[in-house]
Design brief:
This protein is an alpha+beta fold and about 350 residues long. The chain contains 12 helices and 12 strands.
Length: about 350
């Protein structure tokens, strides 16, 4: 039976487990709040369901509590940063504060972050930028067991490699495009598997390369210990974007790209490492602020006035679904499926925390 928990209670329980794993109270609160915000936003794939894997990664030594971002190169408008395997929710926040400050000062900032543990919902970092009036672009790779097949391939060769673009809109909520280059996020398959659901056709291939609707093929080992794989969105187009994210978020940042068998020692580790290339632009320094605000508002209004199509209530822009979910889930609470909650309880028990 699923469990419904108010966000404040879920943050407190999550933080308690993180403190037991060695995090300071401040770090635990930052990580827990970030995870629960993903749940509130409707993205359970990046929410507290990640906690068991975080606990396992800490216990294995692949995730380092109380670790800060390290500056490797600082040219003012360019930053090269290393996350040193710290919590991505902390590393990402520290990095974005630095990048936003530089973009405000210089008009733009190109920033790389390597070796961060799981950065969570990338839209969170774009929200920080747009709140400061900046345009932001983020290209991310995933250094964990490769779970996504290349277009024309039959096994996993890279991660879900997200891309995110945030654009501030004067006087209204920002445009926030945040998507995995796989057809669905890996975490959504974990949620479906835990809930005992099949998924739509066209999302997955099994360990033999054949189409399947069983989300378990990318969650637990199948025949001969092998896994299936997610498919990229948009066929060759999403595949191309995934490769671009690997090259920019992985190779260019210095964090590295994936080129090992899925069953290698690193492929079996619980740590999820991300590299991220971020580009920040201040429209106020670009000389187009007035026309940007006018044209952006006019275009968004034009798009949203399109008559609702069959099966839709209205036209939305990227970011609207998350904002609506926060209102609803903030009021009604967050639903955690039985298996996910059992996994969270078990992870707490590993570090001496008893949850109901």
């Amino acid at each position: 039976m699923s469990k419904t928990i108010l966000s404040v209670e879920l943050i407190a329980s999550t933080a308690t487990i993180l403190i037991a794993c060695g995090s300071s109270g401040k770090e635990a609160q930052t990580v827990a709040s970030n995870l629960v915000m993903a749940n509130l936003s409707g993205h359970d794939s990046h929410g507290v369901g990640m906690l068991p894997r975080y606990v396992a990664a800490v216990l294995e030594g692949g995730l380092k509590p109380n670790t800060s971002v390290k500056t490797l190169l600082d040219l003012g408008h360019m930053l090269t940063l290393d996350g040193q395997r710290g919590y991505g929710q902390v590393i990402g926040e520290q990095a974005m504060h630095m990048g936003i400050e530089r973009a405000k000062q210089h008009g733009s900032c190109i920033m790389t972050v390597a070796n961060s543990h799981h950065l969570g919902r990338i839209g969170h970092w774009a929200e920080m930028a747009t709140a400061a009036g900046l345009v932001s672009m983020h290209f991310v790779n995933v250094m964990a067991r490769p779970s996504v097949a290349p277009w024309g391939g039959a096994d996993g060769r890279f991660g879900t490699n997200p891309c995110c673009i945030g654009i501030p809109l004067a006087g209204r909520e920002p445009f926030l495009l945040d998507f995995a280059t796989s057809r669905v996020a890996q975490g959504k398959m974990r949620v479906a598997y835990n809930e005992g659901h099949r998924v739509a056709p066209g999302l997955l291939i099994d360990e033999t390369g054949a189409p399947t609707t069983n989300p378990g093929v990318v969650v637990v080992p199948q025949s001969n210990g092998l896994f299936g794989a997610l498919m990229t969105f948009g066929e060759h187009k999403g595949y191309g974007m995934a490769v671009a994210c690997e090259l920019m978020g992985g190779a260019l940042t210095g964090g590295g790209s994936w080129h090992e068998p899925a069953n290698s020692q690193r492929g079996q580790a619980q740590a999820v490492l991300n590299g991220m290339l971020t580009v920040l632009i201040d429209p106020a320094k670009l000389g187009t602020q007035t026309s940007f605000e006018t044209e952006a508002q006019a275009f968004v209004d034009w798009v949203k006035k399109s008559p609702a199509g069959q099966g839709f209530d209205d036209v939305q822009i990227a970011g609207d679904p998350e904002r609506r979910a926060r209102i609803q889930r903030g009021k009604d609470g967050i639903v955690i499926d039985t298996q996910t909650w059992a996994d969270i309880v078990a992870s707490g028990a590993k570090v001496g925390v008893a949850l109901n």
